Amino acid sequence: MPEKTAVGENLRWRLLVCGVVQGVGFRPQVYRLAQHHHLTGFVGNNSSGVFIEIQGAAADLAMFLHELEYEPPPLAHIESIETHEITVQDEADFTIVDSEAQIAGHTLISPDLCVCDDCLREMTDPHNRRYRYPFINCTNCGTRFTIIKDAPYDRPLTTMAQFHMCDNCAAEYHDAGDRRFHAQPNACPDCGPQITFIKGKMWFSGDAAIERTFASLQAGEIVAVKGVGGFHLACDAQNDAAVEALRLRKGRPDKPLAIMVSDLMMAKSVVHINDAEKNLLQSRERPIVLLRKKSNSLSSAIAPNNSSIGVMLPYAPLHYLILDRPLVMTSGNSSSEPIVKENQTALEQLAHIADAFLLHDRDIHAHCDDSVLRVVHGAPYPLRRSRGYVPLPILLPSDTPPILAVGGELKNTFCLTRDRQAFMSQHIGDMQNLETLQAFERAYQHLCALFHIEPQAVTCDKHPHYLSTQWAERFAIAQHIPLVKVQHHRAHIASLIAEHQLNEPVIGFSYDGTGYGDDGSIWGGEVFITGSYPYKRIYHLPYMPLPGGDAAIKNPYRLALAYLWASAIPWDMSLPPCQHAKETERRVLKQQLERNLNVIQTSSMGRLFDVIAALIGVRETISYEGQAAIEMEAIACAADDSYPFDSIGVLLEAVVRDVRNKRPIAEIAGLFHSTIASHIVTTACTLRQQFDLSRVALSGGVFQNMTLLRQTIERLEASHFDVFIHRQVPCNDGGLALGQAVIASHLLKGDYLCV
Ligand code: ZN
Ligand code: ZN
Ligand code: FE
Fold this sequence. Notes:
The chain starts with 9 loop residues before the first strand and ends in a 6-residue tail after the last helix. The chain has 23 helices and 30 strands. Strands 7, 8, 9, 10, 11, 12, 13, 14, 15, 16, 17 and 18 form a twelve-stranded mixed beta sheet that branches. By secondary structure, it is of the alpha/beta class.
């Protein structure tokens, strides 16, 4: 605050407020406060945030500033307020002025948040003019990120531009005392977006569309519902035939489907919920929360062989209108393509899946899938960071130059940095086809436009075959900027260090399925000592053969046979993988291994989970990433003992002995989890002695396994380690880009002594 004060005299300040201050009712709040304290001046948006010129008595100005700082509107998040004293002017009132278009701004954009209680109350009030109106919103709630095309956030730069406010809506918009004062997406049934239900040649709008949607869902049909960040495919979650039809048509045989329930009560009828989980479920971000299944009335096809189920509460007003039972709400796409967001695309691409469509005419500018989280040790643990969280930045430990980190291949997200902020993109998907690459490019253009970032460097994974890596190589050449390739498992650890702003070295366990190693083999069971870069790879799981790359990954039984062969354990027909492989297949595989043809070496921990799952007969082939490990975790009973783990061969021998002795597979699975947790603790203890480090960081997709993660944390803490796990970005490859960005930034700034 400026120090000069003069009692009885007027002062004038110019303020610049940065943070999430646009589209959240900030200017109306400023207007109301100015009125309240008898101040004059003006307020407006520019691309740095909100600018204010404010004039009046010193005491009133001080009160104004205090209230602005400590009672901002509910969705606002103030990062800084800059204040300068300027010359007093002759003026009579306080006004809201037009937005200033400026370059190089620093404003933040609010994510899409759920409808607020006030709006819900109005929507269910038969006397309200927005009774049952699916696009009700106000300055305190609603869509933001997905409808904003460019900054600053004003209606003409959103997909609401095509709708002209009626007199009633305009009056609210201009009334400083109204909850919708300067609410950019303000709309009503007379002037705003409308819904349409389409089935075959039949069209219905308004309430009839809702009634028809109900009828379709009730009859076991699949309805493609346009939501906030794209389409959902919805069906009755209690109807086996409907869920199975959805799986068949979508080409998704086993992967769990998320459900939406109307309230907490309905949620409690299908899953167990503790307080922290309840808070996350009800948070305004409204993510999918993975919760422990109850044996219940839901279709068993929702999450087969899985102990958890993904549950979310309604977030768009439309959801409240169509929910009277638990609904499957899965992303509207065909198998590996990005989520569909346009009406026409939905009508074409989802025609073979959906029996009917519930469309609306408000365009979705940016796609945004639902976020997925769990609660671990009382706090959120992200598995997919997308709607509700994006595009809020992650605060970095230090300033970075503008960098684009393109992420990995599976569960791709990218990252753009600016000052101390890292903007992680929404979930893009598995970058294995042109459609996903195009979605990546669109999302990249969008985030660059919103935050005015022009990358001065680009960073990617080392894997030569990743589409993201190849894209980054082309981008670097086209833009004449440096390219930094960051090793996959180091990026995992770096992302965790960055989100916790850790400066001291840690023992980093980077355990996942696949990542390209420095030596060209496939890594995934890596332990690093961080500090100087490149982080020293201090330990890794012993190399084992991966015959035929992808073929082995999709067929854990082949992997199990290869691991047995490498450990000189005979392929005896009492073992499930041997039974699963036909005789000719076994012969060809043996030759392949003996001649080392198309066999890659791997130190992957994820693959070891696959091998054990196949060995005990839980899963011989998979249809989605991580399936074998997930199904093994689901049956594992609690165990404290461990198998010997002097080498992978010794471990396999012990497991094989138990399988032959017909030990219950739930016990073997439990013992295996316990073995890996113990192994981590033993390794950490050895490294603590050697390097005098007591901080342990756990990253990589293997730590999506809750049984392993919880056991590992408990045992490490019992051994007096400080344990760090992900809280802001996923431990899987969805968090990779953050690690790439921070490593590249340090390299570019010359912070590291490069070896
Ligand atoms: Zn509202
Ligand atoms: Zn209206
Ligand atoms: Fe990974």
